[in-house]
Design a protein that fits this description.
The complex is a heterodimer of chains A (322) and B (124). Chain A has helices spanning 2-35, 51-61, 72-88, 107-128, 132-155, 157-163, 168-174, 188-201, 213-216, 226-251, 267-286, 292-321. Chain A is mainly alpha-helical. The longest helix of chain A is centred in the N-terminal third of the chain and has 34 residues, at 2-35. The radius of gyration of chain A is 20 Å and the shape is globular. Chain B is mainly alpha-helical. Chain B is built from five helices and no strands. Chain B is flat. The N and C termini of chain B lie far apart (61 Å). The chains are: A mainly alpha (322), B mainly alpha (124). Chains A and B meet through α1, α3, α4, α5 and α6 of A and α1, α2, α3 and α5 of B.
Chain lengths: 322, 124
């Protein structure tokens, strides 16, 4: 019985997340279009509203090309590894009090584990394609993701210190009595480090070096086409949402808002995620891409020391205040 | 308590995992009957700006990537050590703080060493 109920919840969650992925791509194109004084998609439906649906149908019917030289099993498994790893992390996100699929006590650790697994998909895709661009893209992505994962992992230790838990629901509840009901101000260094590593972890501009089109064509997914490419794309957008959700839970007070919303408790949570997504897109429209050595310097020489300082300061302050 | 081998809280994760695999495999499998497939040699060679690929793509690459991977293991293990400490910091008291400061200091020594050796410098 519980299993049946859970399956229904999973299907609802899945459909909603897929809709969000589809319309995140729509709003990305629309917002960037308007920021560049263009209109963005306008043809399919009213103001292009049906564009993501059309794109989905199109990629479903596109030819699926697997290069002769590719390592077929790995080539076929890689997008699915990415998608499954990203989707599984959705299970531990608390959308509102009690609105969580799997309320485990190591939620944050689980999300880190899953985002590490997703980078396997990228590396395997780059290796299996047997193309130079894919190979270099996969390598770069691996080095970038693991470098920034350390910074991200360390930046959240401050939040764990303050809340005394890894469970995402408890982290949100622990924020209730801090300033503005969120850890944004007390953990501002942590948030700074987290925010930058979040952009790097999801391979977004200005850190989209794995798929820098001017030098690597399309990076690790150069050889992918049709639905396989679409699955990579979905995984990337789900990854963005998961990271936005982690930022919301750990620094912006989760589902808590200025006032409680009667019939739809996750409203504030969703609004905060939309804010994060908008900033993702805004940054993409604004900033140029980093150079690879600058990217590595930023991660290793600035963010990791900053995160360590944040841990020490938080721990000392907490010991003094009690 | 129930005797099921999986703790109840993890059931959702397992189901979502299976659902994700099923979705990925099924869309690709079902799509096979709908999409067209006209492979020929030129279409199936690896992309290299339209030329025949010149050499094996899995070539030798910079040793920096290995160094980054090794450093990652060191620092990620450190981060994992910090998690249980951070979670139970309230209960451990001052002793834990001093101990963790020592731990972080030892890591900093290694970090400074790596920096001085130029491991963190991507280009000289």
């Amino acid at each position: 019985m519980t299993i049946l109920l859970m399956l229904v919840q999973i299907i609802v969650l899945f459909v909603l997340v897929m809709l969000h992925v589809a319309y995140a791509t729509y709003f990305e194109r629309k917002i960037i279009g308007h920021m560049q004084v263009r209109l963005g998609p306008m043809q399919v439906g009213w103001h292009g509203l049906l564009q993501p649906i059309a794109d989905g149908i199109k990629s479903f019917f596109k030819e699926d090309i697997i290069p002769e030289q590719a390592d077929r099993p790995t080539f076929m498994a890689a997008p699915i590894i990415c998608l499954v790893a990203m989707m599984t992390s959705l299970a531990v996100l608390p959308f509102a009090k009690g609105w969580v699929l799997a309320d485990i006590n190591i939620g944050l650790l689980f999300i880190f584990a899953m985002s590490s697994l997703a980078s396997y998909g990228v590396v395997l895709a780059g290796w299996a394609s047997n193309s130079k661009f894919s190979f270099l893209g996969g390598l770069r992505s691996m080095a970038q993701v693991i470098s920034y994962e350390i910074a991200m992992g360390l930046s959240l230790v401050g939040v764990m210190l303050m809340s005394g838990s890894l469970n995402l629901t408890q982290i949100v509840e622990a924020q209730g009595n801090s300033i503005l009901g969120m850890y944004l101000l007390p953990q501002c260094i942590g948030f700074f480090v987290f925010f930058i590593s979040m952009l790097a972890e999801t391979n977004r501009v200005p850190f989209d070096l794995p798929e820098a089109e001017t030098e690597l064509v399309s990076g690790y997914c150069t050889e992918y086409s049709g639905m396989r490419y679409a699955i990579f794309f979905m995984a990337e957008y789900i990854g963005m949402m998961v990271m936005a959700a982690i930022g919301t839970v750990c620094f912006l007070g989760g589902w808590n808002g200025p006032f409680a919303v009667p019939f739809f408790p996750p409203l504030w949570f969703l609004l905060k995620i939309y804010l994060f997504m908008f900033i993702f897109i805004w940054i993409r429209a604004t900033l140029p891409r980093y150079r690879y050595d600058q990217l590595m310097d930023l991660g290793w020489k600035l963010l990791i020391p900053l995160a360590l300082v944040n841990i020490v300061v938080t721990a000392c302050l907490k010991a003094m205040i009690g | 308590m129930d005797a099921s081998p999986i703790p109840q809280e993890y059931l959702g994760i397992l189901l979502l995992l299976l659902f994700g695999i099923l979705f990925g495999v099924l869309t690709l499998f079902v799509g096979r009957f709908f999409r067209l497939s006209r492979p020929y040699h030129e279409k199936l060679i690896a992309y290299e700006s339209g030329n025949e690929p010149t050499e094996a793509p899995r070539m030798r690459f910079s040793v920096k990537f290995y160094l980054i991977a090794i450093l990652f293991v060191v620092f990620d293990v450190e981060a994992i050590y910090l998690y249980p400490w951070a979670v139970s910091y309230d209960r451990l008291g001052l002793f834990a703080l001093v101990e963790m400061l020592l731990f972080i200091f030892l890591l900093l020594v290694g970090y400074v060493y790596a920096w001085k050796k130029g491991v963190l410098q991507w280009e000289k």
